[in-house]
Amino acid sequence: MKCRLWLIALGMMSSHAAFSQAEIAPWGNVTGVRIEGQLFPFETRLILLDNNQHMTATGKELQRPVYKRTGNEQVVATALQHIDLKERLIASTTNTAALNVFAVAKEAQTAQGLYLAVKVPGNAQLSVNGKTVAAVNEPVRDLGFKSGNQVVKLEFSTPLTLKPYGNELLVPVHTGNFEKGDTASLQFTFTVNGKADKSPVALTVNAAAAGRVFDGFGGNFRLQNPATDPQVIDYCLENMRVAWGRVEMPWRFWQRNITDQPLDSAKAGRLHPAVKAAMEMAQRLYKKGMPVILSAWSAPAWAVVGEPKFQPGPDGVWGNPLNAAHTNEIYRSIADYISCLQTIYGVEAGYFSFNESDLGINIRQTPEEHAALIKGLGACLQQRGLKTKLLLGDNSDATTWSFLDVALNDPATYPYIGAVSFHSWRGWEKSTLEKWAGAAQKTGKPLIVGEGSIDAQAWGYPAIFEEPVYALEEINLYVRLLNICQPASILQWQLTADYSPLAGGGIFGDQRPLQPTQRFWNLKQLAATPAGLQALQAASSRQDVSIAALGNKEKKQLMIHLVNNGAARKAVLNGLPAYVKELGVTVTSQQQAMKTKKTIPVHNGVASLDLESCAFITLAGE
User: Fold this and answer.
1) CATH number of the domain that 385 lies in?
2) Which residues of the chain have pLDDT under 50?
3) Rg of the chain over CA atoms, in angstroms?
4) DSSP sequence for 552-585
5) 388: helix, coil or strand?
6) Which residues form the signal peptide (predicted)?
7) What are the tens digits of pLDDT across the range 1-58?
8) I need a labelling partner for 566 at 20 to 30 A (CA). Which of 48, 205, 255, 294 fits?
9) Domain check: are 377 and 292 in the same one?
10) Which residue from 359, 361, 391 is spatially nearest to 374, judged by alpha carbons?
């Protein structure tokens, strides 16, 4: 079965290779065209302007779009207020593409107009209808702008009146108000030309600067899809080294009423099916030698203030605070669950958290409440003889790092903290990620990325999971996290059918045979990192080439992960430890699934290599 799935994956990835590389985000914004692997930006968005100049625009996490690809055609369906929108990006085999926009008003809509906004670089040289201009002051049939070595040209079927809007030009789809049932459309082609930058990159490793240990790649196993989860879980656990695991604690099904005695019920074999399945999942991971994290997404009604919320309310606020009047009962209930898991299922849970309590998914805490929980629940677990520690944070994003401050500044929390955790959906700037590395250093605890991936709404347009651009961006983030944060593990969200790294098998309605995607091979390649390697200082001379290095001086092991986000280029790698005489090379890209390449010799700590375009490259030396 493994061999058959490998062949299917190679055929699937190769099938996209002949198409042009025009790219559109799943929310409908064109991002640019790749030429020899390098993304040349051509950025658009759809804007609805009302008569008071208030603007609504398409963007990430702003709407609920649907995304699909058929061959070289990508389609996005979305909406701005009462206007339903459909965009079709049709890429040719060159650097030219056609974009069609169709709008229909489901209700009357007061508006100045609906526009396609085209971003124009500030230093761009403009041309209109073949003439160089300082500004756009006439109806436009073709529009061009040149910036650096990049030239963009748009061609419209009929002359259109464009209007400036900040650093954008607004191309009208419809002007004025919409009546219910009104339709409007826009069609044009765009061409992007430029010379790909293939200049060499200098890569450096400082093997003497060893940091924290990377245990290995991990995964989330929150069970949500009983029909399709098992096959994905089985495949991932059988075909990938998974070092850490995170499972749900279905607390609201564990103790529905405050007077219930759930531990007694469990000993009598009366477990809710969701609880039983979650505990068995934890048992399976624990038997494979993984540290296991328990996270509670929601609480029984008696444990929170107000009616339990599973969506934000009208005020936009998520979740419910814990009911302080029942603090002792809350601690006892959680401790009973952990005790049950240990005595009945043989699982000693390493860590506990409330999932994303900074935001309220679905239990909401203040920083003060979070610190108090760590001390109070931590002491309760210790008194019960349970070794489970609390996660500091387990935040929704890296951006909310200030949520840790109260606990970080209270040394009384430290004995009960097992690790620092954040989720990687947002906040990828180096300065932000360094805050989390600093928190781990201050507490002396490991750092984990409790949920790893790049788009928290991708479940709504799952076809994006098979796009090479998604796979590349995801693994690029992971390499940066390894280098900047030095985590003990990055736990993929998820290694189940939700955000699945596999396709087919009925997942998201896909009836093809079950098959690994490019994302799966990226994750498997990262997961092949041997256990116990320490993060080493590493740097790249180019922003579009990411690097992370890990090594073990005693075992004489070295592994370097690289992501080339641009065109093929040469690289020189300096600073390799003396024990490394050659480097094995493994590459995953749109066309290759963990392909082994020719071994690279190392002379006096220096190696020269060719970086393939848009590729995840791993170098291994022993």
Assistant:
1) 3.20.20.70
2) 1-20
3) 26
4) ETTTTEEEEEEEE-SS-EEEEEE---TT--EEEE
5) coil
6) 1-17
7) 333 333 333 334 433 443 348 999 999 999 999 999 999 999 999 999 998 889 999 9
8) 205
9) yes
10) 391
The pLDDT score that the predictor gives to residue 240 is 98
* One domain for residues 181 and 255: no
The answer on 259 and 160 residing in a single domain is no
Domain end position, chosen among 169, 194, 219 = 194
Q: What angle do CA 80, 81, 87 make, to 5 degrees?
A: 25
Tracing tokens 């699945």 back to the chain, one arrives at: 500
Query: How far lies 459's CA from each of 65, 68, 79, 155, 464, in Å?
Result: 11, 13, 18, 35, 9
User: How far is Cα 565 from Cα 212, in angstroms, rounded to an integer?
Assistant: 27
* Pair (292, 181) in one structural domain: no
51 CB burial (10 A radius; 0-12, 13-18, 19+): exposed
* 250 shares a domain with 174: no
In angstroms, the CA 419 to CA 443 distance is 9
DSSP state of 541: S
For residue 516, give the 3-state DSSP assignment: strand
Query: What is the domain-level CATH number for residue 70?
Result: 2.70.98.30
Average pLDDT score over the chain: 95
Question: 109-148 in b/e burial notation, b at 16+ Cβ within 10 A?
Answer: bebbbbbbbbbbeeebebbbeeeeeeebeeebbebbbbbe
Q: What is the pTM of this model?
A: 0.95
Largest Cα–Cα distance of the chain, in whole Å?
84
Q: Say yes or no: 183 and 53 in one domain.
A: yes
**Does the residue 363 lie in any domain?**
yes
Measure CA 171 to chain center: 32
Query: What amino acid occupies position 278?
Result: A
**Closest of 566, 570, 564, 562 to residue 620, by C-alpha:** 562
| DSSP-derived secondary structure for 157-222 | EEEE--EEETTEEEEEEEES-B-TT-EEEEEEEEEEEE------EEEEEEEEEEEEEE---EEE--
In 12-149, the DSSP E strands lie at: 22-24, 30-35, 38-41, 44-49, 55-57, 66-70, 73-80, 83-91, 96-105, 113-119, 125-128, 131-133, 140-147
3-state secondary structure of 60: coil
pLDDT of residue 406: 98
Q: For residue 6, what pLDDT is reported?
A: 37
What is the rounded distance in angstroms from the CA atom of residue 535 to the CA atom of residue 208?
11
Number of domains in the chain: 2
Residue indicated by tokens 């906004």 = 117
Domain that includes residue 137, residue range: 16-194
Assess if residue 416 is contained within a domain.
no
Tens of pLDDT, residues 446-500:
999 999 999 999 999 999 999 999 999 999 999 999 999 999 999 999 999 999 9
The answer to whether 60 and 455 are in contact (CB under 8 A) is yes
Is 508 within the bounds of a domain?
no
